Amino acid sequence: MNDKKNPGQQKNRFTLAVLTIVCVAMILLGIGEAFPVKAVRNVAGTILSPLQTGISRAGNWLASQQADARTVDELSAENDQLQKKVSYLEEQNTLLSENADELEQLRSLYKLDGDYSVYDKVAADVISKDPSRWYDVFTINKGTTSGIKTGMNVIADGGLVGLVIDTGATWAKVRSIIDDESRVSASVLDESGNCIVSGDLSLISEGKLRLSQLNADVNVSSGDRLVTSSISDRYLPGLLIGYVDSVEEDTNNLTKNGYVIPAVNFEQISDVFVILAQKDTGDTSGTTETPESSASQNGESVTGSSAGTNTDAAGAEG
Q1: What is the pLDDT of residue 77?
Q2: 4 vs 10, 11, 17, 96, CA distance in Å?
Q3: Among 228, 246, 160, which residue's Cα sits nearest to residue 188?
Q4: CA distance readout (Å), 171 to 9, 29, 105, 279
Q5: Is 135 helix (H, G, I), strand (E, B) or coil?
């Protein structure tokens, strides 16, 4: 036979014992009040006093437990409300951040439009790109219905992005100057010398493009600006490419090579301008002035090629 006692039975027995003691105490209290004998009252008081104290403490404990239960429920409800408010505020903060980013992009486009106001342009959004970290080839949401043609120049963030290489009615594909196939005829601002700026995806992770075929006698320093050359057959003159990072003479002592930091952040492009003019066809219908006038940016001019400049540079462009 199992000698273990049932916990439920033990609990019931304990409850019955407590109730029995309470009943006895109540009876004795009644007796003590009925008899005027002092000794009896003293005995009854001695017996009942601890019981009354225990009962009072038990009642107070139960009341505190009920109060604590109400407090927990109230705190839980208040916490739910606060969580909802936090979620709402986080959502509003996200919207404000997105609006701020959009405003900054619009300001950049507005400034860019002013910097190259000599040309008519079409603004477009980037809608897709090749599966890589960099925007070397990407697609925009404007095409032939907006006047965009293959070979048109694309700019963003104050500088040259690349060329339109394919078009549809409502889209166009752009190859940027960081692409391995890209070659741009460039000029050092305020210096009479041309060079080639080449794309190199192995270099762009360092934030650089390759510079080559610069005449050794051209005085160039780190930080000098490079713009598209007037001898280019694909790029309109005076478009900012970037800034000279470093240069050194080749072993033949006739030319220099080095590196260029592009003006555009090719890790993040969301909006661009397509210039409605094509250098290679002589189409200047998209300009309000002659193309040569665009060689001046912010009050500074770009000089043409000098004797000894590599005039084959334009032919190497892509």
Answers
A1: 79
A2: 11, 14, 21, 68
A3: 228
A4: 82, 99, 21, 21
A5: coil
> How many Cα neighbours within 13 Å face the side chain of 89?
6
How far apart CA 83 and CA 81 sit, in angstroms, is 5
Average pLDDT (190-213) is 91
Between strands 159-167 and 183-188, the pairing is unpaired
Residues 169, 127: Cα–Cα separation, whole Å: 15
> Over 90: is that where the pLDDT of 153 sits?
yes
What is the token pair recorded at 158?
A: 């104050």
Q: Does residue 166 contact residue 173 with C-beta atoms inside 8 Å?
A: yes
Res 314 pLDDT > 50: no
Query: How many angstroms separate the CA atoms of 157 and 29, rounded?
Result: 95
Across 13-27, 149-163, 281-295, least confident range: 281-295
Query: By CB neighbour count within 10 A (0-12 exposed, 13-18 middle, 19+ buried), where does 151 fall?
Result: middle
Q: Model confidence over 91-110: pLDDT tens digits?
A: 656 555 544 555 454 455 55
CB 230 within 8 A of CB 302: yes
Distance CA 159, CA 199 (A): 15
- Over the chain, what is the mean pLDDT? 75
Q: Take residue 51 and report the two structure tokens written for it.
A: 């019981």
Report how far residue 279's alpha carbon sits from residue 228's, in angstroms, rounded to the nearest whole number.
11
Q: How far apart are CA 284 and CA 105, in angstroms?
A: 28
Tell me whether strands 255-262 and 209-215 are parallel, antiparallel or unpaired. antiparallel
Quote the DSSP letter at residue 294: G
Nearest to 295 by CA among 214, 219, 231, 202: 231
Q: What is the pTM of this model?
A: 0.58
Widest CA span in the chain = 137
